[in-house]
Amino acid sequence: MCLIIGFLFVSSSFLISTSTSSFFNNSSLCHLHESFALLQFKHSFSIFNDTSYDYECGCSLGASRILSWKNGTDCCTWSGVTCDMVTGNVIQLNLHCSKILGIIYSNSTLFFLHHLHRLDLSGNDFSGSQISSNFGRFTSMKHLNLSYSSFSGQVPQEISYLSQLLSLDLSANYALELQTSSLKKITTNLTNLKELNLGYLHVSFVESHSLMNLSSSLTSIELCSSGLQGKFPEKIFLLPNLQVLNLDFNENLIGSFPNSNWSSCPIRELRLSGTAFSIDMSYIRNLKFLNILYLNNCKFIGSHPPLLMVANSTKITHLDLSDNNLGGYMPSNFFLNLQQLIALDLGGNNFVGQLQETCANNSNQISLLYNCSEHQLLGHGPMNLEYLNLRRNKLNGTIPSWLYSLPVLRTLELSENQFTGSIQEFQYVSLSFLNLRDNKLHGPIPVSVFQQENLTTLILIRNNLSGAVGLDLFSKLKYLGDLSLSYNNLSLSFNNFDNYTLSNLEWVELAACNINEFPYFLRASENIYHLDLSQNKIQSNIPKWLWNVGVDTFQDLNLSHNLLTGYLPEQLPWKKLQNIDLRSNLIQGHLPIPTPSIRYYFISNNQLFGEISSLICTLTSIQVLDLSHNTLNGSVPQCLGNLSDNLSVLDLRRNMFDGIIPTPFSKCNSLTSIVLNGNRLKGQLPRALVNCRNIEILDLGNNMINDTFPQWLESLPNLQVLVLRSNKFHGSISSPNATFPFQKLRVLDLSNNQFHGVLPTQYFENFLAMMHDRRVDKLEYMGEYNYYQASVVLTVKGLDVNFEKILNIFTTIDFSKNNFDGKIPESIGKLKSLKGVNLSHNKIYGNIPTSLGNLSNLEWLDLSSNKLSGEIPMQLSEITSLAVFKISQNHLVGAIPHGKQFNTFGNDSYTGNLGLCGFPLTKTCGNDEAQQPSPSVNDDDEEPTNGFDWKYVFIGYASGLVIGISVGYMFFSDDRLACFMRKVGGERWLKLLKTRRRNGGFNRRRRN
Length: 1008
What we know:
Number of helices: 12
Shape: elongated
Oligomer: single chain
Radius of gyration: 40 Å
Signal peptide: 1-20
Helix content: 10-25%
Organism: Rhamnella rubrinervis
Subcellular location: Cell membrane
Keywords: Cell membrane, Glycoprotein, Leucine-rich repeat, Membrane, Receptor, Repeat, Signal, Transmembrane, Transmembrane helix
Protein name: Leucine-rich repeat-containing N-terminal plant-type domain-containing protein
């Protein structure tokens, strides 16, 4: 290979030398063979036309440097090329961000430039290229930068041959790997190296001992996100010239600071974020030259509060202590002392209290206090501050006035706190990023916000801001890319502003902003990828121009909960669309089909009709498909089973689908919810559902499915909700061979089918999720999946209730309107978390089991229209949460239990049981029929209360005997009042009652 390259080099040199007149004039400084090498290098690549700005590698708009390279001109004058003015050799090649696309092969003419001292190929796309061993031939190289250029493969050991290197940057080539042997040779042989950047390389198998031989001349070491592990050598902290050390985000890298001789080290920038270092702030505070300190998500040791340790470090310019769970109040002199601050990030902690105002005391000295009188406010703060991030803390009070007076503040991030008051006017127009979301701010948006000509991000979501906002206010915000004003009390208006556009918008959130027209200004937003206009009052067709906006960029579109009308195109135009939400509008026509990249598709609660196109089966990335509450008809495409590999939620409820249920393929582990309720589906349940091991919600109610009970579903380990109501299921539901069936089931609705046989004792004994009376610290919901929330319609207390969310503590069993017979098993009393039981309209006989009294959480119990006999168990009176109790149309006898909840049930709870007596029925019970009093009564000899409510005792005691007896006359029959008087006052009070009766009767006769 070397011979071939040499031959090519000689041949090319010969050709160049024989045609000098066609390329250069006599005054050209550039050597002919180097000019030819550069031109050949240029022609081996293409130039991509991406005009966007790459923030990560610092690439800006502009033409590629190599476009200026022309035949017949001096290569020393070409953009990016520098020659030695004496020898004419090309010594520097700077092609940073030149939009170069292609592969650098090992025989590239780049390697003919033997005299290069500096080579910068960063910020290009050499995807698929490996770093050739021929880079080791640049023996004069002092600066090599190959960062952000998509190199892959192994870093060759030949890089260690570049013994004169002063700087080496291979960072951010994410597919590039560095082996231990190569790292050791680099750290050992490059003894002149001053700057080393290997950040974001894949070096997960390289341990920190490989760094032991780093050159003492190093001034900068950057190894962030490199997978380093083990203990970091302390001696590296003591390198005599080290100024920058960046070890960020090596999560398995441990270490600690040197115990001595460290304070005099020249370190000015220290980054240990996301490592397992033991950070003792008392060591850091002694670093004399430290300006930049990044300790995000770290492990602190020692008794010194980190914030207090840096409060007196007057030289700190950049400080990041975010996401460390730090708490308490900020030191009173914090912002005063750090007057040199340029950037501060304390986000993701637990700081409380108010941000202090800057005040002047009686001695005319500046101090920071929590409260300042108006004449004391100076507005002073760290005047060099450009970046302030206090997101996700617990700060409250008003935003201090000095924050509005910082002359160079670019980023202000105060989101997710508890700030109150109004937003004041900013005194300068330096802002580019403003985020105040999720606070308690009120009042209008200040006029000064709309004067920030460099503003790219404005986020004010979820506050109490108010006032009218017209589009004309945004006329100066030419660079605005993120506009988020959702969930305030604002009223946005776009009337008469048809000429205004915000062409740089990429992220727009204007949900619940009282918008009543579609924002016309979006028509020029070619790069938009997120738009949320949900929960407004937009009453119109979706404008046709929207289909031409963001065709190549749109990813998220939410127009839900408006009054949008009209028809949609059969195929949506956006090529990269991932999430679309059109729920709860008035959209008509056939179901539109989005691009195959779609993941979440919501179009429920509209007026769609017709059959589903088979094109829906091209949505191979779909995770949630919600077409519910429309009038779609025809059969459900069987090819939907092909989507089961990725599909997690399929919701087709409340349409007019017929035919059979699609059969999911064997790989359906992603499915968590299948909701087909309220259609006309027939046939049997697909047995392949048993392969869907992660199903939580299965709702097939209100169809025409004709099948036996799917006992084979009992093995699904995560099934929580099973609704089969109102179908044509038949047969027995008992499973004598069941081992551990339906252990996570919490909602079971089999009502209105044709099941028969005895109730399933073995199920009641194994419904583990229904057995535990759970008390949870945090209420959660079943069937939640990202943007989707499972809902279900159940019969609760005799009414059909739509549960838009299903609480994780909700449990119910409904077997009503079937042909079950036999007795109610005592084992039902084990299901202590049950909220409701409905066994009505069956043929169940026998006694009501006393074990039902164990269901202390029960809120409704319906046993009506059966053949139950015997007495109502007194134990049921202990269920204090019971709100609905129905046992009508049975053969029950004896006294109705009294007290507690039983005093609230009406006659309709007991009708059709001719043998029952007692309150609230008019039929009273004799002594021999009376039930025992409730356990709360201690006297075993006392007579029954016959429906008496003890609140009347308290009325009597509080108001005196006469008033008490008068109240008794108003509320009780004679027999009940006699019982009451005997309980309260014994025979003496009973005689008084009889005397009053006689007198009352005599007086009545006299009045007549």
